[in-house]
């Protein structure tokens, strides 16, 4: 069983500096919270059913700006008698 540790004695100057630091850090944290902008979001769902065959891919444009955000790839790798089929998600 361990004995309880005795607290160290801080000098008055060090104690004063630590208190000032804690006060400044707290004020900075409150200031950051006050500057935070409220966020707003919505979920838009578009029903889609796509079949992605082996070796094919499908481009996904999340915000419909004409730029592909992600690509789903259906990969098949065969070595000898065994093979591996994987569906991967890649960003450009």
Fold and architecture overview:
The protein has 92 residues and is α+β, with helices and mostly antiparallel strands. 26% of the residues lie in helices and 25% in strands. The chain has one helix and three strands. It has one helix spanning 12-35, and strands spanning 57-60, 70-79, 82-90. The chain has a three-stranded antiparallel sheet, with no helix packed on it. The longest helix has 24 residues, at 12-35. It starts with 11 loop residues before the first helix and ends with a strand. The model has no long low-confidence stretch (mean pLDDT 81).
Chain-wise SSE layout:
Blueprint: H1 12-35, E1 57-60, E2 70-79, E3 82-90
Antiparallel strand pairs: 1-2, 2-3
Helix content: 25-40%
Q: What quaternary form is this? A: single chain
Shape: elongated
Structural class: alpha+beta
Strand elements, count: 3
Average residue-wise pLDDT: 81
Order of helices and strands: HEEE
Task: Extract low-pLDDT stretches.
Answer: none
Q: Calculate Rg over CA atoms.
A: 29 Å
| Amount of beta strand | 25-35%
Count of helix runs = 1
Strand order of the largest sheet: 1-2-3
Largest sheet: 3 strands, antiparallel
Termini separation (Å)?
58 Å
């Amino acid at each position: 069983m361990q004995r309880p540790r005795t607290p160290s004695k801080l000098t008055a100057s060090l104690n004063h500096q630590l208190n000032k630091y804690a006060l400044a850090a707290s004020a900075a944290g409150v200031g950051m919270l006050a500057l935070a902008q409220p966020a707003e979001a919505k979920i838009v769902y578009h029903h889609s059913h796509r079949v992605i065959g082996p070796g094919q891919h499908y481009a996904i444009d999340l915000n419909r700006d004409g730029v592909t955000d992600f690509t789903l790839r259906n990969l098949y790798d065969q070595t000898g008698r065994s093979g591996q089929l994987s569906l991967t998600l890649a960003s450009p």
